[in-house]
Amino acid sequence: MTEPVSVALCFDRHLALPAATVIASAMRSASRPLHFYLVIDRAPGLAQFLRSVLAHFGAGGTVVEATPEVALGAEHRVYGTASTAAYRRLYLADLLPDLDRLIYLDSDVIVRHDLTELWEQPLDGRPLGAVAHGWAADSRTMLERFPNGFFNSGMLLMDLVRWRNQGVLSRVEDAVRGAVADPGGTLPFHEEGPLNAVLVDDWQSLSPSWNFTSYFTDSAAATLRLSPELLTAVRQDPGIMHFAGGYKPWLPDFARLSHYHIEFGQLRAELEQSVDLAGLVWPGRFIGSTADRRHRRLRAMSLIDRARRLNLGRWSVVAKGLMAVDVLAVAREQGLDIAGVVIDNPLFRDGQFGDFAVQGLAEQIHLGCRGFLIADFRTAPLTAAYVKETASSLGADVHILV
Amino acid sequence: MTRGLLTIDAIVQRDTEVLSTQAPDETLAMDIASGTCFAFTGPSARIWALIETPIGVRQLVRRLVEEYEIEEADCLDQTMAYLQKLLAEGIVVVADFAAH
After folding, report:
1. Which of these three, A249, A274, A299, is where a domain ends?
2. pLDDT in tens, A238-264
3. ipTM exceeding 0.90?
4. Fewer CB within 10 A of the end CB, N or C, for chain B?
5. Do the Cβ atoms of B39 and A294 come within 8 Å?
6. CATH (domain of B78)
7. Considering only CA atoms, which of A47, A82, A50, A52 is closest in space to residue A66?
């Protein structure tokens, strides 16, 4: 009998439906049995719901109720709720002592290719295989801080034997405790920073196909020395699509942002039609602190107010992250005429952002738009400079509000 | 509308230089002149919504009594105290009938 591919997900109640969608997606293309290890918080009805999902999609599975990470004292605040589940992946080698190899997946992915191919990737004696983070490759700070590269921890191919033998857990625990004690220090990003710091040159780089995100821009790919041909091929058909960042496919504003978001919607519909959801609901917006959320909205108000006073006519919103949702909402409240949403990312070409079709910057300029609102919470000056440079190269005189 | 004295016969309204937005969990406001920001939830958000356009304090209290099913005297005391706070912040303007 063929040995199953072992796949683990770690989540709590509020990510149960996205996690169920991961299972549904992986079973579509599985050429050999998959056995899921669903490591969850204890919550009424959750284990039973997951068993019904596994049964419906014909997957093998074990539900493990365990939260060993709580002792770390670290907290991950997303979707408006405090959670420790992100740190749980660090404990998989201990929680599943009979396993030698494991694929870990975040709950905001869809699997599109047969996981057998990923399962069989050589790790060349390393405890971990992972995919370089496109976002980190686009960040000067991250390149300086992690000159050997920085992986995204949303997909991990784990050699559990080596993980145990090398004492990876205790080393990463120390790093997490250090990060908790020094929140302004050099190891942010929850468990991801500490993992990268500990396994600094001891991880096997895998094809971006196995953890593709919208952060694989052309410039990130160039930094990572990925050929344009490979990038195009992966962009068109990744093995695992990871909806990292704020544009989660279960949120109405982003349900049609790319054809992968639409694919997620089809899986979601199948799940909702075939399994009793047991009162579970889809998560809300991927948000950080209340202060960040308010800051985004207030900046949006200021932006729209200044745009109205300029009386320029129609404006385009240059979207980078969730602030664009706030800008569009405030524009609606204040009656500012919006021409469209600009995202210069090939992944979202022809997509839909809320009520607006996504267009490229050059396209909007060609269409005659001369006012651009920079809806970018963290890197607005860089985005504004990009808009200015592009407009200048097209010989267009534009107004940019940051 | 002038910046008058807050009495039960006064008419109140948001200062037009204050921007307001309805966020998913709360109402946020920003005084453009000072850059000061405010967050309103629950009854305070309701009061803020009702004073978007000029409204008499008596009418405002009547609306709140109906909506929250509370004693009129208590509602009047709390509403006046709250309006005084907003007035002190400079984000509400007041006129009494005598001013019209």
Report:
1. A274
2. 999 999 999 999 999 999 999 999 999
3. no
4. C
5. yes
6. 1.10.10
7. A47
